[in-house]
Amino acid sequence: MSLSKISKIVLVHFFMTSVFAAADISLDYSVPQEDDKGNEITETNFAAKYTYVLGKSDSEKSTYTLGGDLRYTELKFDEPLLGKLKLLKVKIPVGGTHVLGKNILKWTLTPGLHGQSDDFLSESEFRPEGNFIFIWPRTNLQWLLGAGFSDTFGETKIFPIFGVVWKLDEKSTLTLMFPQIKYEYLTEAKNKYNFTVAPAGAQWQWKAGQILNNSEDVDVAISGIRFSVGGDFILNDSKYLYTNIGLVTNRKFEIHRHSNTSISGEQELVNSWFFQVGARF
């Protein structure tokens, strides 16, 4: 198998880059399994992403991308003092993919604003995120090693990325890459089905006065582990509809004060069911 073909397999399976301008919009809804008053958060997310390939180097060994990433979240608390929280993230990812001999280096830098949707520009927090991954393509295996900095686990922090993508046959691919596990099956009609286990987290700045008359801004985070099954259903060569359904376990809601991060609050949440629908084009 040629290097160019291996590279395409790696990039397609990880959604690491786009060979054209592409967009992704989705809506997901998460509702607690149990009626445990005072210990519930119902979560709704709307996300829209756009990626544009800026161009390739003269040698065609490097590709650069620029994009936009918007995520609107509503957290509806069962606690009357908190009610409903409307949150927003606006990010501008910049990335690159570089062919280094028989290997590939992929990186993304994602500066963005994270906060409440009202008074967003004045009250939100600026925070850079990013990752880099080094890929060793080897026939039907692709080994990966790297690191990321984001709120994937809830609280924003550095975490390792490592593992392997194993193309079992022409239709099946198994991804064992921390922090996710994913199995994909491609049908004759080019529809794709998957089973995925991955962290589901996010962090925002919550302005002063919104939590029991707090006197300063705080960071709030929600986290969990998402088990899902789903499918990508092809409309034509570049348009897909997709759905995912599953369970979020190990859910937590955390609050961290800016002035003293050792003073924080943490609430364990009940498991929740979730459903997601979206489109790529």
UniProtKB/TrEMBL annotation:
<keyword id="KW-0732">Signal</keyword>
<feature type="domain" description="DUF6268">
    <location>
        <begin position="128"/>
        <end position="280"/>
    </location>
</feature>
<dbReference type="InterPro" id="IPR046235">
    <property type="entry name" value="DUF6268"/>
</dbReference>
<feature type="signal peptide">
    <location>
        <begin position="1"/>
        <end position="21"/>
    </location>
</feature>
<protein>
    <submittedName>
        <fullName>Exported protein</fullName>
    </submittedName>
</protein>
<dbReference type="Pfam" id="PF19783">
    <property type="entry name" value="DUF6268"/>
</dbReference>
